[in-house]
Amino acid sequence: MALQLEAAVRLFAVHVEMDDSELMQIPDFFPAFESKPIHGWQVGFIFRWGVDAFGDTQLWRIIQQVPNAGHDHRKPDELPGFFVRIGFNEETGHPVWTQPLGGHDAYMRDDIVYHQGQLWISSIDNNVWEPGVHGWWNYPIPM
Known about the structure:
Helix content: 10-25%
Distance between the termini: 55 Å
Number of strands: 8
């Protein structure tokens, strides 16, 4: 039954349009990257590999078909033109804010996130609030 639930959630996440912050709330339902041939994987395919800046499961999306020759066993961070990290703002180099599910994944003081076009820094520990509502300052902090 648990395998069926996992498969159902994975199908739902892939076929229903979810934004990156919603995908990041269910990362462990996506298949894990393994060192195996990846040239058959389709553009848009989402998988998990590694962890993000906060130690949470990192999701990746295929953005370009991986060619057959020479790239089969390379890791996602070794092929930046083919894969992109989900929940990571490439321009700023910071993770995208996602709603914590509880105290176990809440943001801590001085965590920096990207949300709605700007950077925010948590002003409190165990922060579960959305940036701009409570417990966040615009980053950099004005002096």
